[in-house]
């Protein structure tokens, strides 16, 4: 993948911290059966990492794990004990996690009042609670060793808010603020925390949320490109990666000129 250090290579360190070599690391990727998670698993394995793929689709996970020499861990992160069971399994088998890619997530499109309480609870559990709990499980050992990479797949919806995706936007906003807060808390202790902020990625996400993507812009990018953007930023020690890069513009406008942003948003959607 373009920009990701080859096996055993050392990436640039833009944070003043020691940035991990990929070769020989242990990586845990959630949502590993398809989309960005599957792409990340392939790319990390190709760079020499030992990869654990987590998800609910046993057939797809096992097939991919066999092809890349990884380990499939079947489980449901929406269940109360799901994150703890996943972390225990990987830490027991591997002894440590050097790279955590919090990718698992789901969407839902429609009016907020049309969303039932169980669906809200499942989305919050998967998109927000599970990444917090998995990070909490692996972070102490990372801090003790003075190195580790935490990656979060966010969304532009979490930076701007999107109509008919209120709960999804809220979970991604929470994830973004969590990453920022944890970055401050762990500053100078060898932990690199990176968030991918994509617009539209060509994955089964839109089919599963119940509404296909039908806008002309932004154009969808491939899961491989999205994963490469996240991993490249992670191993370069960068805090975030926008995809496409111009996405930072509406975020900057919203932060500095909120009234102007809301006017433009009402007009352009």
From TrEMBL:
Top-rank lineage group of the source organism: Bacteria
Listed Pfam families: adh_short (PF00106)
InterPro entries noted in UniProt: NAD(P)-bd_dom_sf, Sc_DH/Rdtase_CS, SDR_fam
Keywords noted in UniProt: Oxidoreductase
GO terms under cellular component: membrane
Any one GO molecular function term: oxidoreductase activity
Family the UniProt entry places it in: Belongs to the short-chain dehydrogenases/reductases (SDR) family.
Database matches in PANTHER family: DEHYDROGENASE/REDUCTASE SDR FAMILY MEMBER 7B, DEHYDROGENASE_REDUCTASE SDR FAMILY MEMBER 7B
Name the UniProt record assigns to this protein: Short-subunit dehydrogenase
């Amino acid at each position: 993948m373009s920009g990701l250090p080859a096996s055993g290579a050392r990436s640039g360190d833009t944070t003043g911290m020691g940035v991990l070599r990929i070769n020989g690391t242990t990586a845990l990727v959630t949502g590993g059966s398809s989309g960005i998670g599957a792409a990340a698993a392939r790319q990390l394995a190709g760079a020499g990492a030992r990869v654990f793929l987590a998800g609910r689709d046993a057939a797809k996970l096992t097939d991919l794990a066999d092809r890349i020499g990884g380990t499939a861990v079947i489980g449901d992160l929406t269940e109360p004990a799901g994150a703890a069971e996943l972390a225990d399994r990987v830490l027991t088998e591997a002894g440590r996690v050097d790279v955590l890619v919090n990718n698992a997530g789901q969407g839902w499109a429609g009016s907020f009042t049309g969303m039932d309480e169980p669906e809200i609870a499942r989305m919050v559990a998967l998109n927000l609670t599970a990444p917090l709990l998995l990070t909490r499980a692996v972070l102490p050992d990372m801090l003790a060793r003075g190195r580790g990479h935490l990656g979060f797949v966010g969304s532009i919806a979490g930076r701007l808010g999107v109509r008919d995706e209120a709960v999804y936007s809220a979970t991604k906003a929470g994830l973004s603020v969590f990453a920022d807060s944890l970055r401050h808390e762990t500053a100078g202790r060898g932990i690199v925390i990176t968030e991918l902020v994509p617009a539209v990625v060509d994955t089964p996400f839109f089919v599963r949320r119940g509404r296909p993507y039908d806008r002309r812009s932004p154009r969808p990018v491939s899961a491989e490109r999205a994963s490469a953007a996240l991993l490249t930023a992670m191993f370069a020690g960068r805090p975030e990666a926008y995809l496409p890069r111009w996405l930072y513009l509406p975020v900057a406008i919203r932060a500095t000129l909120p009234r102007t942003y809301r006017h433009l948003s009402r007009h352009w959607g």
